[in-house]
Design brief:
binds 6-O-phosphono-beta-D-fructofuranose; Rossmann fold; 467 residues; alpha/beta
Length: 467
C-alpha cells in the first residue's frame, strides 16, 4: 500500500489534546492508516540547519523535522510567506512587500523540504503538501520523483487574478502549482480566481472537471472546503473542564449576553472593525449598555512582524477607549484576552455566548465559525454572525452574513441576533449543524485523497498530447 506523506510548514503540536477534532487529528488518522510520515518544521531556529531532518517515530507514523536557520526563518517564513504572500492573498496590496533575497530563500527552503521528502518517499507514496509556505515544493519534488502522486491544498484565499498578478514572480509561482497533480482550494471563488489567472496571465486552458493546462503541464483543480469534527467538538464544549470554564465566564459576564470573538491577532481577522461595530451598537442602542459584553480572545501571532505589532497596539487602544467610554463599575463592555487559551476554555466561551461574531475581512475558511456552531446547546443555541468574506460563508448560509466593513450593518445584525426568538435560533442552528456533519474533517481528508488518486489516473491515462 502506498504511504501518505504530509508536508506542512509547522509540525503538529506534540500534545494530542491541543488539536482534538481538528486538521491534525484527521491527518494523523490518515497517516496511521498507511504508516506515513509528516514532514514539517518545529518552529525553532537550528544552528545545524544543514543537517538532514530528524525522524522520530510516533504512534503508527513518523515525524520528520526539517531544520531551519535564523536566516532561513527570516527570509522564508517571516518575510516572503508572511509579509508578501499572506497580505497579497488576503487582498492587502497596501501591506505586501517583495524582497528578491527573501524570495530566493523561500525557494531554497522549499527545495530543502522537497529534498527531505524525496529522501523519505518512494515513487509509490502519495504526497500531500499544505499551504502558501510551500508552493514551490512541487516543482523541486517533481524533478526528483517524476512519478509520484503530488497533491497540494491552499488553506488561505486565492485572490482575484489582477491582485495575484501584482506579485513579482507570480507567473513562476503559479507554474510551480501546476507541478502538482491535484490543487485543492477552499471555495469555488478561489478556484475561479486561479483559473482566471491561468487563462489571462499564463495563456493556459481550463477544461471540464477542473482539468487545467499551463506552463507545459497539466493538473486537476477542485474545491474541498475544510471541515471540523463537529461531534468531537460538541463533546469538548459539554465536558466538565469546559463546564468549569463556563462558570467563570458566567461570573465574569455578570449575566449579560455574551458575544464571542476568537482568533489569532491578525489584520485579516477584522478585530478593530468588529470593536467599532460593537461600539456602534452601544452608542445607538443605550438599552443594551450593561446588557451585552464582547469577549474577545486574540492570541498573539507573528509578533516579529511590525504590522502585527501595530495591530496589537491598535486593538489594545480601541478596547481601552470603548471600555473607558461606556464601562461602568459593574459592567465591562469588552473583555479582551490577548493570550492563547485552551481548546476547552474556548469551547466553553462559544457555548456561553449568545452570539459568535466572526468577521474576518478575508479568510480561506475560518474554522472558528464552524466550532462556534458545533459547541452550541441544541436546546438553546446561539447565533452565528459571520463575515461574507470568510470561506465558511459559502457553506454556512444560515448564519447572519455581514459585510464587516459596514459598521452600522454589522451592529444591526448583532441587534437581530440578540433579539432572535428561540425557535428561529434552533431552526438556523439545525441547518448549520447539518452542513457541518455533511462535510466533516474526515470526509474532507478522504475526498481530497480519493480525488488525488483519480487525478493521477486521469492525467496518466490521457496526457495533454492525447487529450
Ligand atoms: O491558516 C494559515 C496559517 O498559516 C496556518 O498554516 C497556520 O497553522 C496558522 O495560520 C498559524 O500561523 P503561523 O504558523 O504563522 O503561526
Amino acid at each position: 500500500m502506498s504511504r501518505l506523506i504530509v508536508v506542512s510548514n509547522r509540525l503538529p503540536s506534540l500534545e494530542a489534546q491541543a488539536s482534538a477534532g481538528g486538521l491534525a487529528i484527521a491527518l494523523k488518522q490518515a497517516l496511521r492508516e498507511t504508516g506515513g510520515i509528516w514532514v514539517g518544521w518545529r518552529g525553532d531556529l537550528s544552528e545545524d540547519a544543514e543537517t538532514p531532518p530528524e525522524t522520530i517515530a510516533r504512534e503508527g507514523y513518523d515525524v520528520a523535522s526539517v531544520k531551519l536557520s535564523e536566516a532561513e526563518v527570516a527570509g522564508y517564513y517571516l518575510e516572503f510567506a508572511n509579509r508578501c504572500l499572506w497580505p497579497i492573498q488576503h487582498l492587502r496590496l497596501d501591506l505586501f512587500r517583495f524582497d528578491d533575497a527573501a524570495y530566493e530563500i523561500y525557494r531554497r527552503v522549499n527545495e530543502k523540504f522537497a529534498d527531505a521528502v524525496a529522501e523519505l518517499a518512494t515513487d509509490e507514496d502519495r504526497i500531500w503538501v499544505h499551504d502558501y509556505h510551500l508552493i514551490s515544493v512541487g516543482r523541486f519534488l517533481r524533478r526528483k520523483r517524476p512519478a509520484s502522486q503530488l497533491g497540494y491544498f491552499v488553506h488561505i484565499p486565492f485572490p482575484p487574478a489582477e491582485v495575484f498578478s501584482a506579485l513579482p514572480r507570480a507567473e513562476e509561482l503559479a507554474c510551480d502549482l501546476l507541478s502538482y497533480d491535484l490543487i485543492g482550494f477552499q471555495t469555488q471563488n478561489c478556484v475561479d480566481n486561479f483559473h482566471a489567472y491561468l487563462t489571462h496571465y499564463l495563456g493556459g486552458t481550463v477544461g471540464p472537471d477542473g482539468r487545467i493546462a499551463a506552463c507545459g503541464r497539466e493538473a486537476i483543480s477542485g474545491v474541498f472546503p475544510i471541515g471540523i469534527d463537529p461531534m468531537a467538538f460538541a463533546e469538548i464544549a459539554a465536558s466538565s473542564v469546559a463546564t468549569d470554564a463556563l462558570r467563570q465566564i458566567e461570573l465574569g459576564a455578570h449575566r449579560t449576553a455574551v458575544i464571542a470573538g476568537v482568533e489569532r491577532m491578525d489584520y485579516t481577522k477584522g478585530i478593530p472593525e468588529r470593536f467599532r461595530a460593537f461600539q456602534h451598537l452601544l452608542q445607538h442602542n443605550p438599552s443594551y449598555r450593561g446588557e451585552v459584553s464582547l469577549f474577545q480572545v486574540a492570541a498573539p501571532s507573528r509578533m516579529d512582524i511590525p504590522e502585527y505589532q501595530a495591530l496589537s497596539e491598535e486593538v489594545d487602544e480601541l478596547a481601552g477607549h470603548i471600555n473607558g467610554r461606556f464601562g461602568t463599575f459593574d459592567w465591562t463592555p469588552i473583555h479582551f484576552i490577548n493570550r492563547p487559551m485552551s481548546q476547552q476554555a474556548v469551547a466553553a466561551l462559544y457555548r456561553a455566548s449568545k452570539i459568535g461574531l466572526i468577521t474576518p475581512l478575508s479568510d480561506g475558511m475560518n474554522l472558528v465559525a464552524k466550532e462556534y456552531v458545533a459547541a452550541q446547546d441544541p436546546e438553546d443555541p446561539g447565533v452565528l454572525v459571520l463575515s461574507r468574506f470568510a470561506g465558511a460563508a459559502a457553506e454556512l448560509t444560515d448564519a447572519l452574513l455581514v459585510n464587516p466593513h459596514d459598521t452600522a450593518a454589522t451592529a444591526d445584525a448583532l441587534k437581530t441576533a440578540i433579539d432572535m426568538p428561540k425557535e428561529t435560533r434552533i431552526e438556523r442552528w439545525r441547518q448549520l449543524m447539518d452542513v457541518l456533519q455533511g462535510n466533516d474533517i474526515h470526509n474532507w481528508q478522504q475526498k481530497f485523497l480519493s480525488a488525488l488518486d483519480a487525478a493521477c489516473q486521469d492525467l496518466r491515462q490521457t496526457p495533454m498530447d492525447a487529450a
